[in-house]
Amino acid sequence: MLNWLFNKNKSKEVHLDHIGLDLHSHLIPGIDDGVETIEQSVEMLAKMQELGFRKAITTPHVMWDMYKNTPDTILHGLADIRLAAKNAGLTIEVDAAAEYFIDEHFVGMLTNGEKILTLPGNRVLVELPYSTQLMNTSETLFYIIEKGYRPVLAHPERYTYFYSDPSVYKKLCDQGCELQVNLLSLSSYYGDNVHKMAVYLLKQGLITYIGTDAHRLQHLDLINKTNKDGWLDKYSFQNQKLLEE
């Protein structure tokens, strides 16, 4: 359980030691909408270490209409930021997976048995469109499972088309999908409705992991401003378990 300290009138420093692992970020420069330079990568890793993370698994977008990233491009970038972090004297461990947009290219990768970069336990981080619901979301997630992976749905609280029938979240979990909430969704950063849905999913016990989804240093700096609602003490996440897998 998180042992964050809260003050109703004044934010205190957030310490994420009990989470330990951040499994969703965009730290490799120049390959998606995340950081642009290696210096920014190091700054963000230093901030993650300061917050208490012992490991970061960065997850560049693989979205074939926009970011045609492959395991080679991602792992090459990973080697660069690992070296830069080491040279900067950082102790935080860095690894890479990917955030796969569910599109025809991704389904083709599954069908053809192409290499997919995964989180521990053969989990694959996936995202859905923000504006228009996929007609076959449930079937595609089941197909991921059929292919031997465990789907982790990134930031489900941000898919507003599910709001009219939130029972869909439990159906996805019952089907074998795990849900990852963005840490900043626990504030009003993405808006009040996203915040309310994040709280709803927590209260329903449907969230497995929390992640920063950090694209820039500002996102990490804002984490301290989420430190005001004592209800967060009531919930725990399984990030720590992935450190052992």
From TrEMBL:
<dbReference type="GO" id="GO:0004725">
    <property type="term" value="F:protein tyrosine phosphatase activity"/>
</dbReference>
<comment type="similarity">
    <text>Belongs to the metallo-dependent hydrolases superfamily. CpsB/CapC family.</text>
</comment>
<protein>
    <recommendedName>
        <fullName>protein-tyrosine-phosphatase</fullName>
        <ecNumber>3.1.3.48</ecNumber>
    </recommendedName>
</protein>
<dbReference type="InterPro" id="IPR016667">
    <property type="entry name" value="Caps_polysacc_synth_CpsB/CapC"/>
</dbReference>
<dbReference type="GO" id="GO:0030145">
    <property type="term" value="F:manganese ion binding"/>
</dbReference>
<dbReference type="Pfam" id="PF19567">
    <property type="entry name" value="CpsB_CapC"/>
</dbReference>
<keyword id="KW-0378">Hydrolase</keyword>
<dbReference type="InterPro" id="IPR016195">
    <property type="entry name" value="Pol/histidinol_Pase-like"/>
</dbReference>
